[in-house]
Amino acid sequence: MAMVGQQVGGVPVRFRCNFSIAESIGQVIIWILLSIITLGLALMVFPYYFNKVVLNKTEVLDVNDKVLGKLDCQFNLASSIGHVIIWMLLIIVTLGLASFLFGYRVIRVLLNETRIQYY
Questions:
Q1: Any idea what DSSP says for residue 52?
Q2: Reduced to 3 states, what is the DSSP secondary structure of residue 20?
Q3: Which DSSP string do the residues of 18-32 spell out, in sequence order?
Q4: Which residues contact 32 (CB under 8 A, 6 or more apart)?
Q5: Distance CA 84, CA 87 (A)
Q6: Where residue 11 falls among pLDDT bands split at 50, 70, 90?
Q7: pLDDT of 42-90, one tens digit each?
Q8: What are the tens digits of pLDDT across the range 15-33?
Q9: Is 89 exposed, middle or buried (0-12, 13-18, 19+ CB in 10 A)?
Q10: How far apart are CA 13 and CA 66, in angstroms?
Q11: Which are the contacts of 21, defined by CB distance < 8 A and separation ≥ 6?
Q12: Whole-model pTM?
C-alpha cells in the first residue's frame, strides 16, 4: 500500500506493510476457534481486529525507504461497542444487505482511530 506524492513536513512518504502469510494463517485459526466457541458472534468483531493487526504492522517510509514511524491503531471494542451493536442490528433487519456497507464502515472507524508514531 503506497501513497506516492503525500508529504509529511515537506518529505514525501509511503506505507509498507510487514504482515506475513504466517501471521495471517495464525489470525485466521484464532478467529475460527473464537467463532466456534462464541457460536459465530465473534465474526461481528472479526473485521475490526483483523484489519487492526494489518494497520499495526504498517510502517511509514520516506523517499529513501528509511522508516519514519509506524501506524498505531488504538481501536478497542469497549469504545466502539455501540458501533458493533448498531451494525449487527442493521444487518439482521436488512436480512444481510447492510453487510455490504459494514466493511467500509469498519475501515472508516479503524482509520479514524489510527495515528502515526514517529521514531
A1: H
A2: coil
A3: ---HHHHHHHHHHHH
A4: none
A5: 5
A6: low
A7: 888 898 999 999 999 999 998 888 999 999 999 988 877 888 889 889 9
A8: 999 999 999 999 999 999 9
A9: exposed
A10: 10
A11: none
A12: 0.80
- Other beta carbons within 10 Å of 49: 19
Q: Pull the grid cell for residue 25.
A: 494463517
Q: Are 98 and 91 a contacting pair, CB within 8 Å?
A: yes
**Side chain identity at residue 20, one-letter code:** S
In angstroms, the CA 90 to CA 85 distance is 9
pLDDT beyond 70 at 2: no
What integer pLDDT is reported at residue 36 of this predicted model? 96
On whether the CB atoms of residues 70 and 114 are closer than 8 A, the answer is no
Write out pLDDT tens, residues 59-71: 999 888 899 999 9
- Burial of residue 64 (CB within 10 Å: 0-12, 13-18, 19+) is exposed
The strand ranges marked E within the chain are 6-8, 11-17, 58-62, 67-73, 114-118
